[in-house]
Amino acid sequence: MTPAMIHDTAKSLWKNRIPGQLVIQITDICNARCPQCGMRVTETFPRSRISRGHIRQIIDAAAQKGIQAISFTGGEPFLLRDDLLEMIRYAGAAGIPYIRTGTNGFIFRGSHKSDFCARMEDIAGKLAETTLRNLWISIDSAVPEQHENMRGLPGVIDGIQKALPIFHRYGIYPSANMGINRNLAEKLSGDVHDPLMFYHHYRSGFERFYQMVCDMGFTTVNCCYPMSIDATESETGLSPVYAATATDNLVNFSRMEQLLLYRALFDTIPQYRSRIRIFTPRTSLLALLRQLTGHCHEPRPCRGGIDFFFIDAQKAHAWPCGYRGAEDFGPFPDLNLADLLKNSQHCTSCHWECFRDPSELMGPPLDMLNRPLTLIKRFISDPDYCQLWLEDMRYYRACSFFDGRKAPEWGRMKPFDKSVWHPAPFSGKVQASE
Ligand code: SF4
Ligand code: SF4
User: Fold this and answer.
1) pTM
2) Which atom of ligand 1 is found nearest the CA of 74?
3) What is the mean pLDDT of the chain?
4) Ligand nearest to the Cα of 310, by number
5) Nearest-atom index, ligand 2, CA of 305
6) Running DSSP on this structure, what letter comes out for residue 415?
7) Are strands 20-25 and 220-224 parallel, antiparallel or unpaired?
8) End-to-end CA distance of the chain
9) What is the spatial distance between Cα 199 and Cα 424, in angstroms, rounded to a whole number?
10) Is the peptide bond before 75 cis (omega within 30 degrees of 0)?
11) Ligand nearest to the CA of 34
């Protein structure tokens, strides 16, 4: 983090805010077939895209309101590559320090063709000229054919593997984005009759995944928690405006299953922390585990609708997030962020990592400056949380705060080496709250 970034972060925290984030869905057009997503190419709803002019207005307003992070998402953002590049440049020129985008990987098809390397040089070179900070590439399974079948994108794993050294040469270190789904574990059918077995299937699934992305040459990995929201039955009152969710069994986990797989992920991460930069904070997983078991320490309220917003491709309106579709905030430039802070609500209704992870991690610094006594009491009454948060912070520092334009510094990550890692034995006895 540069001194300017630290200064801006501190300024936000003093105002009882955390650094703002906008997720802009530049389009809902997609060319993939992911069964876990309502935007797959086989869905027949009318597709949209936000015009360049409109996105420029949103970026200008974001800069003026002090928003620090913009993620350009889709659909598949790289289907609009020229627009995307221009918007990244524009956001950089407007002074937005954290700019991110991602791809389903279709750009890496055709790795057997003679022009493949030249194509990769071209894309990496153009991205390198911008101030893009993070590029994510979605991967759903440790078995290449399974991933490619799910996405309907044959040959992409080979292409990604060939492209990574080229991107690295241009100073771009993409992150593998693991979307949690049932194909990550060995085949399990039906309900969880044996929680311990379910846990172990996911533990070995996560291990296989981390090992595969290390072997492919990735230096960073993130994780998307499973999103399955059935608006017709939702007890939470959620209705997705961002269709990156589906009710397919592949991502539809019971409360108990979520608990077991988060625990499996929580226990697997330390094993790989020195080998690849793992963005997923264990503090956040602990908070989700506690939420699912009804623990006395509740998770931090999500900053969706306070500091974080989603802009949809159809109306180009702002929403508290992609899933509170009943709360249309209208055009983002017209939003009064001070009013939103005053009237903010405590929401933990979904597990969307883009908003939940940073909300959890930034909770302690926010309390430190605004409610120091609350933080002291929390850390005294909850030493496990305190220790975990401090460890996450040390790890984030060792990983240069996941700056995707920097090579990993293996020496700084070495102290986190727990490759022979024995987490506290897990008995499989857990109780999900109703
Ligand atoms: S998950 Fe991404 S790549 Fe897959 S269908 Fe949805 S938008 Fe497209
Ligand atoms: S927890 Fe956050 S992302 Fe999820 S519904 Fe609430 S505000 Fe939206």
Assistant:
1) 0.93
2) 7
3) 92
4) 2
5) 7
6) G
7) unpaired
8) 42
9) 14
10) yes
11) 1
| Neighbouring residues of 50: CB distance < 8 A, sequence distance ≥ 6 | 24, 25, 26, 27, 58, 311, 313, 316
Q: Which ligand is nearest to the CA of 356?
A: 2
- CA–centroid distance, 348 to ligand 2, in Å, is 6
Residue 144 CB–ligand 2 contact under 6 Å: no
134 vs 22: CA distance, rounded Å: 14
Domains and CATH numbers, the chain: 20-416 (3.20.20.70)
pLDDT score, position 189: 56
Q: Is 77 in the pocket of ligand 1 (CB under 6 A)?
A: no
For residue 222, the cross-strand partners are 177
Instruction: Evaluate whether 110 touches 147 at the Cβ level (below 8 Å).
Output: no
Q: Cα of 178 to ligand 2 centre, how many Å?
A: 20
Q: What's the gap between Cα 222 and its chain centre?
A: 6
Q: Quote the CA–CA distance of 355 and 350 in Å, as a whole number.
A: 10
Contact 61, 309 (CB under 8 A): no
> Hey, which residues does 324 pair with through a beta bridge?
239
Atom of ligand 1 nearest to the CA of 37: 6
Provide the pLDDT for residue 295: 84
Query: Tens of pLDDT along 71-119?
Result: 999 999 999 999 999 999 999 999 999 999 999 999 999 999 999 999 9
Q: Report d(CA 16, CA 366) in Å as an integer.
A: 6
Structure tokens at 254: 């019971």
The predicted model gives 301-314 an average pLDDT of: 96
Amino acid code (one letter) for 346? H
